[in-house]
Amino acid sequence: MPLLPPAIEEPASPEVDWLFLDLNSFFASVEQQENPALRGKPVAVVPVMTDATCAIAASAQAKKFGIKTGTNIGEARHKCPDLQLVLARHDKYVEYHHAIIKEVERHYPVTSVCSIDEMALRLDRLRRPLPAAIDLAKRIKAGLRRTMGECITCSIGLAPNRFLAKVASDMQKPDGLVILTPADLPGRLLDLELRDLPGIGRRMEPRLHAVGIRSMRELWEASREEMHQAWGGVVGDRFWMALHGEPSEDEPETEPKSIGHSHVLSPELRKPPQAAIVLRRLLLKAASRLRRSNHRATEMNVSIRVEDGPRCEAHQRFSAVNDSLALTEVMRGLWENVMRQARWQRVKKVAVTLSGLESLTQPQQLDLFTRGEDPRQRRESLSRVLDAINKKHGRDSIVVGFTPDTVRTFSGSKIAFNRIPDREEFKE
Question: 185-243: which CATH number, 1.10.150.20, 3.55.40.20, 3.40.109.10, 2.60.15.10?
Fold first, then answer.
């Protein structure tokens, strides 16, 4: 009987554990999708229509001129005289964000929404083999183009952990698909600058230089102990593991540390009385968020920046509260403080932050001499009623204090890229 040749085992397909999706020039792309006249043109999204402000987003065409988030608009116009300015519509970006999440989840569940324009998907056993992961990435891309429109593109990174998948997503823009497997390391990473990696910013880079790490090759060759030293603790250990392709650790959910809002004022709102009303609006929105998250605050910080002048701020601690009336009273005193510092000059930017947050499940100190219902609870109940009325009937149906029409129209909800506003915030 003839002997059969030995079976030849097919090499196993490389595997990846994470898919990271980064929407390209998101705010500007939404504006181009909504307005065909902007397509193919350099676009900057701005908070106010003035050359003194900065771009909060730039289209792919604008980026070719060196215009990016944070670029002064006067400088941007000099670089690109044909630059189109568009006033930010944060409610529209949130609307698109939720629609995009819905489309992505038609193909695979989203593990983590990292920001308004980023999300991470942890792949299961069936999607980890590289061909299956690539197929999933392509289906997501095609689905977004089909349901959201031709201007909404994304760059996708596939890698053994979330950190490297994020790095991969940044390596080819726009509309990229980059794969990093353990066998690819360090490979293409060596073409990057230190600042291209998440977690290495303007403060961290000098610390790496101090321990002799000035290039990606030196970072890759550094020991875990050297990383620990550079970061000053276990964060360095985690960074070393992530860089070298170790599996991602599940990050525990943490309680919020603060809630706040800021706003760059348009010229007609920069006189102190108008600026104070905008600040109160921001505080009321923060208070409403505080109540929705079932927290009370024990500290408030108010800060302003005057035109062509310094930043001024004031801080106060108080007993734990979340009702709008009590918080407004605290804000009034802090506003007087910062304006005295600023000598009552015109205000360019206002900000309020509530911190020292306590969960409502945490035991609360009650007044020993209070009979019946706690007055604080009555005020909080009243504030929740106001929230419900404004949610049902629209923003400013009932307000705390007078709000003139010039302020009613301001766009109060802004998007920090690491926090997506609740839809309710645009009704407050």
Answer: 1.10.150.20
